[in-house]
Amino acid sequence: MNCQRIERLLSKQLDRRLTRGEAQAVAEHLEDCPACRRLWEEFTSVRARLPKPGASLRVSDVDHRAIGQWLAEREATAQIRRPGFLALAPLTPALRAPLGAAIAASLVVLLAWWIHGRGGQPSAVRIAQNPPHGQTTTAPPPVRHLPLNPADGRIVRGESVLPSGTIRPLRLPRQPHRRSRSEGNEEHRALTPRPGRQTRVDGNLARVNADRMRAARQGVLLPANDWETLERQVRLTMPVRDDFVQVPFPRLASTSDRQIAAAVESYKREAAIVDSRLSREVGLHEKGIALSDLCDELRSDTGINVAAGQSVADEKVTIFCEKHSLRDVMRQLSRPFGYAWLRNGKPGEYRYELVQDLRSQLLEEELRNRDRKEALLALDREMERFRPYLGLSPDEALAKAKTASPAEKPLLEKLSGYGWGPIQMYFRLSPRDLAALRSGQGLSFAQEPRPDRPAEQVLPLELVRGVLQSGRDIRVRDDRSRGGRLIPGPITNEKFSDGLPMVAVPEVRVRVRLGIGHSELGQFTFDGGSAFVIENAGTSRGREWAVGMSPTVLNPENARANARWAGDPAMRARVAVRPRPSCRPSPVDSAVPAEAKEPRMTSADVLEALHRASGLPIVSDYYTRLVPASAVSVQNMPLIDALNRLADAMRLHWSKEGNWLQFRSVSYYDDRLKEVPNRLLTRWADSRRQHGSLTLEDLIEVSELTDVQLNSDTIAEGVRECFGLEEWDLVRSGNLLPHLRYLASLTPAQLQMTTSDAGLPFTRLSLQQQQQLIAHLGSHLHSLEELPGAVVRVEYNQPGGFRWAIPQAADPGRGFFGLSPVRERTREAALVAARRIDPKVDVAQIAPTQLELAVVYVVVDPKSGKAMELGTRSTAQGGRVNW
Amino acid sequence: MVTLRGWVTVGEDERGQAAESTLLRAGRAGDCEALEQLLAPHKRPLVALCYGILGHPDDAEDAAQETFLRALRALPRFRGDATFRTWLFRIALHVCLNWKRNHHPTELLDETRARPPRDADSPEAIVLRQLEVTEALNALRPAHRAVLLLKEWEGWSVAEIGAALRWNEKQVENALYRARRALVDRWRREENQGGER
């Protein structure tokens, strides 16, 4: 048997699929053939060398999502098919008899309806009786009909028409569909958060806050559309006198005509009530305050029980007014933002709760989707601006840029450098590649694609020279004569300054990568770069080349939207607006001293100045966004022009209601998701004041914010400047975030241990925590045997101290990350402490600390006993990673 | 004891098939909790398999979700000829292989690394080795990769894999051989390159 045949049999042998004769032949062959023996050993090692299945994988709730989607599909199918109620639930024998009777009764009623309905008799709506509370039967309740007068649509009871008073005739759709209890539950699961995440409030409010219509439907098994129609029409015909308040629509426990009429009457009585206590006057001067705090303030000022519901409690508003009635203020806090006040309780002791209902939340979701599409289109338009210059080489673009107009210059400059390759490739992408790019996937094109990268595509040959030319600030050093090799490097480095340009080195291979980023909600960026590789050494350059934002966000066009106010004499008054900044530039993020920077304003600063200048009451939502002072200052300008200009600069829409000026962010639907609640920011700012910097516990808490919140650059800027949280960027650094989120699973005592020199031993973790660590380490862990001696260590350094920076050459045993056993407030103290450990420590080894965090997992190879360090040591700008 | 909504109780020794069939019965009736209990044990291995075949964590999650959804839709037709897990994995296999056919594979370009010298026990070397295994797996044909992972991770027999893919056993054996051979050849190449550096 030859080796080629044996090789295939070796694979079969691994799967124990050889006959006895074949196995014998293989064994004999292996004895004589070292090559096949080696292959056999390698085949047997394949399983061991494969990564462990899914250990490092992040596995989200894919099962829950699938179940939710399936249930939604089932419900949709059920609605389309409108099956009889018999199909809705399996029947137990005990239910069959009453159900049979119910079916018989229903058939009789249906027959009657058929005869009367077809004969021009009053049309009917089917209302099902709710089963008694707590009864779990799934059998359908008996069905009866509530007749409507076909002439005017009013509910008819016997011979008489209901005393509907001012109520407009009800025109309810006739739908023979009914909902089972289980269907209601499915809808609940599909539309509301999973249980346990919302705070429970008492009886009625809980039902109302969760979903007012759903709660109502639980009372009567009317089809959804019927209920909505009923409620809408009653609300239209009988508006609440306190028009910013919603009185919960009555829920009916029974379906008799009398009770429906009584419920409508009850609503009318409630709606007609004006709460005289709301005329109490309040004055407010609040910048970016959380609605929950504002409601607390109103409650303590007026003694009236007002509160912000869970859905809006953390939303921030700016409000300036002098002596306005509480009714007026409450109206301004709800209507401009699509919120509603719910009223509950007895007359004279009414409680008010501000909420955002599901419909309004779904509207925001729609707006976000629309905005996303507009931003993608805007990005495409931005890219199209490069098209006229695609015929230029990088050198030609550079030459043309010198004499170009201000509009052309930035485009040509991008094309003259590292942008040339990615931009050229963008215009050569197939529709499929473009779709992939827009869905967030990266694309890679190489002069010589590597076989181990199946996703890599071939870079068109005609682009290779241009890409090489675009890397004009890279030179290639030729060390081959000294036994070295060709190495590319930046011309600014003196080692490379006399090197060869890349176009002169045929060994250089180029790659181009493209991507569309969406890290900041509401904005897409086209980024990409070029890499230059010689054998295994390479260098790359990349950045973003175009940004797309929805035009409605970029340019709110307030002048056009508010042209109707131009004739208002009050709007012609001339004003000067000079806002005072409430935030200070951060010293962290640039070489320019903070004092030399142009101050930047929040919308609250600007609106405060506007209120001072105009004397008008103002209400606005508040989202963290800083604008340069020069863009939001006006001198001696008609009020309407000032409003248009300032609102455009702050990306707000403005409007006027009575004498109130109302403002709202044009991208509030995105901003809401990015904003960080005040209650967290103030707590962290207090902690920072107390400890001099954020503590490790604070950093971990920050890391538990959503990715949308942490990815936002505008929020990061505001958090640094307005709350002084300089450590924010450290947390959102990609190197550290997963490790900080892992540390959140430790108890405070365990966390304390991680910062000690000995670290937190694996054996001190609970079983669940050990599992979490294993999952976190994932494929970085070779075997579970590496864990018994493992420790978790954290070193968190803040500026202003000194540490013993042990050179790795001096002590290879210190490990990959060089964690230091000595950190002190002064250089001298650090030196003394270090010399206690090693008397030979030189003062040069004592280095000032900077803001950095190391999270290190020391695992021990069971065979060699050698410790290995995994993890990262990073500043906000980057760092050392072994992960 | 496994208790479902207070009305189904399954003894400790009856776990497995009995519990699964109980959950299946309840799940078919739309019992959300039962469905969660039915799917949860298979979530991680399923995502792992999808990741092994597709090579991208987000794609793997999407494929796993699609698998669960298809399984739920087909639940009334599940006859119990194979175990639920086997059936689930068969669906996953088809989802992933179709996915591969219909989606152009893409990956982020990670900038060229100047590879450090190989000290076999250094953390860098360990990281690199892991990276190389992953890259080697990704370089296999998707169907070969799927066959290998089902064999090595899930311990499926050649016959089971054949049934899932509608291949004959010869084809499965051939795919296993090619996958192993490709991995070994690649590792040999890398070792040679490592020696030359």
Query: Percent helix among the residues of chain B?
Result: 55-70%
Number of helices of chain B: 8
Shape of chain B: elongated
Q: How would you write the strand order of the largest sheet of chain B?
A: 1-2
Estimate what percentage of residues of chain A fall within beta strands.
15-25%
Largest sheet of chain B: 2 strands, antiparallel
Q: Oligomeric state of the chains? A: heterodimer
Report how far apart the termini of chain B are. 60 Å
Please state the CA-atom Rg of chain B, rounded to the nearest Å.
Answer: 20 Å
State Rg of chain A.
Answer: 35 Å
Question: How many strands of chain A?
Answer: 33
- Mean pLDDT value of chain A: 78
Largest interface: A-B, 74 and 70 residues
How would you describe this structure in keywords?
heterodimer, A: 883 residues, alpha+beta, 5-stranded mixed beta sheet, 33 strands, 40% helix, B: mainly alpha, two-stranded antiparallel sheet, 8 helices, 2 strands, 3% strand
Q: How would you describe what is shown here?
A:
- The complex is a heterodimer of chains A (883) and B (197).
- With 883 residues, chain A is an alpha+beta fold.
- Chain A is 40% helix and 20% strand.
- In chain A, the strands form ten sheets. Chain A has a five-stranded mixed β-sheet with strand order 6-8-21-25-24. A five-stranded mixed β-sheet of chain A has the order 12-11-16-17-18.
- The longest helix of chain A is centred in the middle third of the chain and has 27 residues, at 358-384.
- The two termini of chain A are 47 Å apart.
- Mean pLDDT of chain A is 78; it is low at 82-96 and 115-224.
- Chain B has eight helices and two strands, in the order ββαααααααα.
- Chain B has a two-stranded antiparallel sheet with strand order 1-2.
- Chains A and B meet through α1, α3, α4, α6 and α16 of A and α2, α3, α5, α6 and α8 of B.
